[in-house]
């Protein structure tokens, strides 16, 4: 019951979160900072009340370690959102972040001296190929769109897009490094996922002072958006604030669902559910918002997710489960 409920939370929360984020970004492409700030405040407030018991509960992991983790987490969150300002389409943004498996594996080999099976290395090739295909096709689209203008404008648009790709690459590697750091902490102090969730969202809050001007400007823009009537309460509020509220709530539902999964299921199941969620979100984003997506994009997307499923060893797990079921039936006979 808990597992099924968590899966529903992940799919409903995360997919709704992607939709609300795209609605925000389509209207104001540079609104990533205010979205991130609102998410952090909401999750930090919830954790302060229910996890730390209004600050009375001491952390199981030293705060100094959380400071290091939070620095990486804050950097990844801000850069991922800010990359949308650099001609990065939402589908490419989602596909690129699906390369977290390869980033984790590469840094695991370098830092933790890990070694993997042949299927894991094959998954690296597939995921890398898929991301490469989608990246190249998106680069071609940027060039085609900008070709109507002057050469200077086309070059500027392409260089602008390359900066966004570089930001996504850096955020991907930084996120993988954070995952390795978090793994070593859990091995030393035990798993405290909800505590880490709170500190990862609470400690970075002062850092948003550096983004105060941008956040304030978008508050003004949000206030000037078209008002919408809330049917239940009978009140009106600006449309963008409604989208932001939906985004914050669905982000919490998504993260909460993933947290329940980590306590109920194996890491294999969690990775599979999150991967399938990304795929559903991607398809919905393309169909509903009519994002430009060529046949080559579909090929790249398929290769990325096949590589991801190969990494999680879904096929061998299904075969083992079927063999186990066959053995039980023979014993029953």
UniProtKB/TrEMBL annotation:
TM ranges: 30-51, 63-83, 95-112, 121-138, 158-176, 197-216, 228-246, 258-289, 295-314
Sorted UniProt keywords: Membrane, Signal, Sugar transport, Transmembrane, Transmembrane helix, Transport
Pfam family for this entry, one: UAA
Subcellular location: Endomembrane system
Major location category of this protein: membrane
GO MF, one annotated term: UDP-N-acetylglucosamine transmembrane transporter activity
Topological type in the membrane: Multi-pass membrane protein
GO cellular component: endoplasmic reticulum membrane; Golgi membrane
Signal sequence region: 1-20
Entries under InterPro entries matching the protein: SCL35B1-4/HUT1
Family of this protein: Belongs to the nucleotide-sugar transporter family. SLC35B subfamily.
Listed name of the protein: Solute carrier family 35 member B4
Source organism (scientific name): Poecilia mexicana
Lineage, highest ranks first: Eukaryota, Metazoa, Chordata, Craniata, Vertebrata
